UniProtKB/TrEMBL annotation, chain A:
GO molecular function: ATP binding; ATP hydrolysis activity
Membrane topology note: Peripheral membrane protein
PROSITE patterns per the UniProt record, alphabetical: ABC_TRANSPORTER_1 (PS00211), ABC_TRANSPORTER_2 (PS50893)
Residue ranges of every copy of the ABC transporter domain listed in the record: 12-263
Keywords: ATP-binding, Cell membrane, Membrane, Nucleotide-binding, Transport
Organism the protein comes from: Micromonospora matsumotoense
GO biological process: peptide transport
Pfam families reported in the protein's UniProt record: ABC_tran (PF00005), oligo_HPY (PF08352)
InterPro entries: AAA+_ATPase, ABC_Ni/Peptide_Import, ABC_transporter-like_ATP-bd, ABC_transporter-like_CS, Oligopep_ABC_C, P-loop_NTPase
Main localisation: membrane
Family label: Belongs to the ABC transporter superfamily.
Compartment(s) where it occurs, according to its Swiss-Prot or TrEMBL record: Cell membrane
Record-given protein name: Oligopeptide transport system ATP-binding protein
Automatic annotation (TrEMBL), chain B:
Cross-referenced NCBIfam families: oligo_HPY
Family, per entry: Belongs to the ABC transporter superfamily.
One GO process term, biological-process aspect: peptide transport
SUPFAM superfamilies from the UniProt entry: P-loop containing nucleoside triphosphate hydrolases (SSF52540)
Listed name of the protein: Oligopeptide transport system ATP-binding protein
Length: 340, 340
C-alpha cells in the first residue's frame, strides 16, 4: 500500500492484519486483512457496526489480545518505523505504556477499585520515570487538574467509585495521558455517558490532543461524534477496512456502498419523519463470512463478480481508498439501487 | 373503541423509591418522577428525552403497571387505571404495551420465539382462541418482518435487531392501542436501528398506534416524534410540538441538550450554538431547591433557588423556567454558557 502524500511519515501503519480466534464453535477470523495508517498528530476515527472488528484491531496494536485464544495469522503493525509484530510482546507493552495509551468505554474496569486514583497515576511516574514518591504524587495531582477534576489535590485521595461516570472517565484520561503518549487510542470513550457529559469529554480530548500534538484513534459508532473530531475516517465491515479517507470525502462522497448505506441510515436533522433507507439484512456472522465481497449479500450494486472476487482496498482518489469493484460508480453517485 | 378514545393521560404523577440512610437512618424517599403530566394519543408519537437517571424508565414502568405510583393519576380511554381493581386493570392495560430497551434481557432465554409471542394469550385467556395461535403468530412475525421459521428459534439464535422485532411482536400480540417504547433502538447498530424505526413508523400508520417513545438520542426522537417532552430530574421542563421545541428550544436545559447532540454532518447545516454544561445531573435523592436545573444553568438567578418554576405556555410550548422568554430571545446572560 502506498502512503498517501499528506502523511509522509505515518506514526502507525497497520497492513493486511489477519487475526483469528479459537472459539467453542471452531476457529474463525475476526480480522480479515485490516489496513490503515495514522499520521503524527492526526485523528483517525474507526467507524463500524458491532462485531466488525474495531476493538480487536486496536487490541492487536496494543498487544492486548488474549494470548491463549487469539492468533495474528498475518500482517504487520509498524509504529514509528518499528515493526511491533516482530518485537517481543514485552517490548510492545513497554511502547504501549509510554508511547501509546488507551482509553476504554468502561471507566470502572480501567481503574483498580481499591487503590486511590492519585496513587494509580503516581505509580506510572514511579515505575516508568523513576521519580520520587512525592514528585510522582505532585504530577498525578497536576494530571487530574489538567483534565478538569475540581479540587484535584483532595480528590486524588478518593477511590474510583467515589467519582461520577463522567469524572471517572476524566481520571482514566488523566492516567492515559500521564506519560504524554504520542498516540491515544480511545475505544468508545463516551458511549456509556450522557450526551451533555459526552460533549464535555469530547471537548476535553480535542483540547488535550491539540495541546500535546498527539495522534488519536477514536473508535465509535456515532457518526456525529466522528464528524466533530476526526481528520480521517476508516470504515470497517466484517473484519476489514472497506473505505478510508478524509472525513468530509467519506461522508459526502463515499466510495463504498456500505458507507453509503450507513450514511443513509441516520435520521437527517433537517428532515424529520422522512423514511429512512436502511441497509437490508444483517452483518454476517464471523463464522460464515460470505465468499467474494463480504458485503455482497446486502449490497444494492452487487454483480456477478462480487460473489466470487474479493475486492481489495485500493486508491480511488488522493488519500481516499475503498474496497469495492465498482467504487468509481458509487463515488459518481450513480443510483446504486437502480444499478443492481 | 374509536381512535379518539384511545388516549393515555398521566396527571401529576409521582413515583417514589424508598431509600435508607441519612443522619438518623430513617427511611426516606426519592421521587424518581415528580408531578409529571403527559398525554399520548392514538396515531401520534410523544418523544421523551432526558439523561440517564432522570426517571424515564420509572415513568414507563408506572404507566404499564409494573410500578405503583405514589401520587397522581393514570387514565386510559376515559377510565382511571392506577386505582382500578386487578381484573379491570388487566383488561385496560392489555391495550398499553411496552417495548424494552434491551432485546437481550427482555426475552426469556429458555423459551422459543413462538412461546414468547403467545405469552400474553396464556395470561389473558380468551384474547385469542387456542386454535388460532399458530396462524396469528405467523401473521405477527410477518408484520414485524421476521421469517416464519424464526418461530422455532431461541433468543440467543437471533441477532439484536431480530430480538427487538420479537419484542415488538410480543407487544402487538395484545392488540394494543398505545406502545410505551423505552429506548427501543438504543442497543441496535445504525443500519438495524433504521430498519426498526421504519417498522415502528409503518405500524403506527397501519394500526393507528400511539407511542410514548423514550430515548436519549435526540436525532432519533426528533425523527419519529410529533410532540416532544424533555425531562430533567423527574420533571418535565419543556414540552410541545417537536418542530417548535427542537427548532427554538426555550428551556436552557433543552438548549444545552440539543447543542450537545452530535450532528452527522455539521458542515451541512449553519453553525449551531454550542453550550457546554458544567457538571453532571445531581442525585434525585437530593434535588436542588427551587429549579432543579439551576446548579447547571447559565441563566440562574437568586429567584431560581427559591421558587420552583411550573410549566407555563411560552411561544407555543410549555416550559418550566422563570426566564424562558429571555432564554428564547437570545440565550440571556451567558454566564457558564460557552459559545463556540
Ligand atoms: N476474546 C475474544 N475471543 C473470541 N472472539 C472474540 C474475542 N474478542 C472479539 N471476538 C470476536 O471478534 C469479532 C470482532 O469483535 P470486536 O470486539 O473487535 O468488534 P467491535 O467492532 O469492536 O464491536 P463493538 O462495536 O460491539 O464493540 C467479533 O465476532 C467478536 O465476537
Ligand atoms: S464489491 Fe460488489 S458487492 Fe462489494 S461493495 Fe462493491 S459492488 Fe457491492
Ligand atoms: Mg468494540
Amino acid at each position: 500500500m502506498v502512503a498517501p502524500p499528506h502523511a509522509p511519515h505515518p506514526l502507525l501503519t497497520v497492513d493486511d492484519l489477519v487475526v483469528s480466534f479459537d472459539g467453542p464453535l471452531g476457529t474463525y477470523r475476526a480480522l480479515n486483512g485490516v489496513s490503515f495508517q495514522v499520521g503524527a498528530g492526526e485523528t483517525l476515527a474507526i467507524l463500524g457496526e458491532s462485531g466488525s472488528g474495531k476493538s480487536v484491531t486496536v487490541r492487536a496494536v496494543m498487544a492486548l489480545l488474549p494470548r491463549h485464544s487469539a492468533t495474528i495469522e498475518r500482517g504487520t503493525i509498524r509504529y514509528d518505523g518499528e515493526e511491533l509484530s516482530a518485537l517481543p510482546v514485552r517490548r510492545t507493552r513497554e511502547l504501549s505504556a509510554t508511547e501509546m495509551a488507551m482509553v476504554f468505554q468502561d471507566s470502572l474496569t480501567a481503574l483498580n477499585p481499591v487503590v486511590r486514583v492519585g496513587q494509580q497515576i503516581a505509580e506510572l511516574f514511579r515505575v516508568r520515570q523513576r521519580t520520587s514518591r512525592r514528585e510522582a504524587w505532585r504530577r498525578a495531582v497536576a494530571g487530574l487538574e489538567r483534565v478538569g477534576i475540581p479540587n484535584a489535590a483532595r480528590r486524588a485521595h478518593d477511590y474510583p467509585h467515589q467519582f461520577s461516570g463522567g469524572m471517572r472517565q476524566r481520571v482514566v484520561i488523566a492516567m492515559a495521558l500521564a506519560l504524554r503518549p504520542r498516540l491515544l487510542i480511545a475505544d468508545e470513550p463516551t458511549t456509556a455517558l450522557d450526551v451533555t457529559v459526552q460533549a464535555q469529554i469530547m471537548d476535553l480530548l480535542r483540547e488535550l490532543r491539540e495541546a500535546d500534538g498527539m495522534a488519536m484513534i477514536l473508535i465509535t459508532h456515532d457518526l456525529g461524534v466522528v464528524a466533530d473530531v476526526a481528520d480521517r475516517v476508516a470504515v470497517m465491515y466484517a473484519g476489514t477496512v472497506v473505505e478510508s479517507g478524509p472525513l468530509r470525502t467519506v461522508y459526502d462522497a463515499p466510495a463504498h456502498p456500505y458507507t453509503r448505506g450507513l450514511m443513509a441510515s441516520v435520521p437527517a436533522p433537517d428532515r424529520p419523519g422522512e423514511r429512512l433507507t436502511p441497509i437490508e439484512g444483517m452483518p454476517p456472522s464471523p463464522l460464515a463470512t460470505p465468499a467474494g465481497c463480504p458485503f455482497h449479500p446486502r449490497c444494492p450494486v452487487a454483480r456477478a463478480a462480487c460473489r466470487t472476487d474479493r475486492p481489495v482496498l485500493r486508491v480511488v482518489a488522493t488519500g481516499h481508498e475503498a474496497a469495492c469493484h465498482y467504487a468509481e460508480e458509487v463515488m459518481a453517485g450513480v443510483d446504486v439501487r437502480g444499478a443492481a | 373503541m374509536s381512535t379518539s378514545e384511545a388516549r393515555l393521560e398521566v396527571r401529576q404523577l409521582r413515583v417514589s423509591y424508598p431509600v435508607r440512610g441519612g443522619l438518623l437512618r430513617r427511611a426516606a424517599e426519592v421521587h424518581a418522577v415528580e408531578r409529571l403530566s403527559l398525554t399520548v394519543t392514538a396515531g401520534r408519537t410523544l418523544g421523551l428525552v432526558g439523561e440517564s437517571g432522570c426517571g424515564k424508565s420509572t415513568l414507563a414502568r408506572a404507566i404499564v403497571g409494573l410500578r405503583r405510583p405514589t401520587g397522581g393519576e393514570i387514565w386510559y380511554a376515559g377510565e382511571r387505571v392506577d386505582d382500578a381493581d386487578a381484573a379491570r386493570r388487566r383488561r385496560l392495560t392489555t391495550q398499553i404495551q411496552m417495548v424494552y430497551q434491551d432485546p437481550y434481557s427482555s426475552l426469556n432465554p429458555r423459551k422459543k420465539v413462538s412461546f414468547i409471542v403467545t405469552e400474553g394469550w396464556r395470561v389473558h385467556r380468551g384474547q385469542v382462541p387456542r386454535d388460532q395461535w399458530t396462524d396469528r403468530t405467523a401473521e405477527l412475525l410477518a408484520r414485524v418482518g421476521l421469517a416464519a421459521e424464526l418461530a422455532d428459534r431461541y433468543p440467543h439464535q437471533l441477532s439484536g435487531g431480530q430480538r427487538q422485532r420479537v419484542g415488538i411482536a410480543r407487544a402487538l400480540a395484545m392488540s394494543p392501542r398505545i406502545l410505551v417504547c423505552d429506548e427501543p433502538v438504543s442497543a441496535l447498530d445504525v443500519s438495524v436501528q433504521a430498519q426498526t424505526l421504519n417498522l415502528l413508523a409503518d405500524l403506527r400508520a397501519e394500526l393507528g398506534l400511539g407511542y410514548l417513545f423514550i430515548a436519549h438520542d435526540l436525532s432519533v426522537v426528533r425523527h419519529i416524534s410529533d410532540d416532544l417532552a424533555v425531562m430533567y430530574l423527574g420533571r418535565i421542563v419543556e414540552t410541545g410540538p417537536a418542530a417548535t421545541v427542537y427548532g427554538a428550544p426555550a428551556h436552557p436545559y433543552t438548549r444545552a441538550l440539543i447543542s450537545a447532540a452530535p450532528v452527522p454532518r455539521p458542515w451541512a447545516s449553519p453553525p449551531a450554538e454550542r453550550i457546554l454544561l458544567t457538571g453532571e445531573v445531581p442525585s434525585p435523592a437530593s434535588p436542588p431547591s427551587g429549579c432543579r436545573f439551576r446548579t447547571r444553568c447559565g441563566l440562574a438567578q437568586p429567584r431560581c433557588a427559591e421558587v420552583e418554576p411550573e410549566l407555563r405556555t411560552v411561544a407555543g410550548r410549555e416550559v418550566a423556567c422563570h426566564y424562558a422568554e429571555s432564554s428564547l430571545a437570545d440565550g440571556g446572560p451567558p454566564v457558564t454558557a460557552v459559545t463556540r
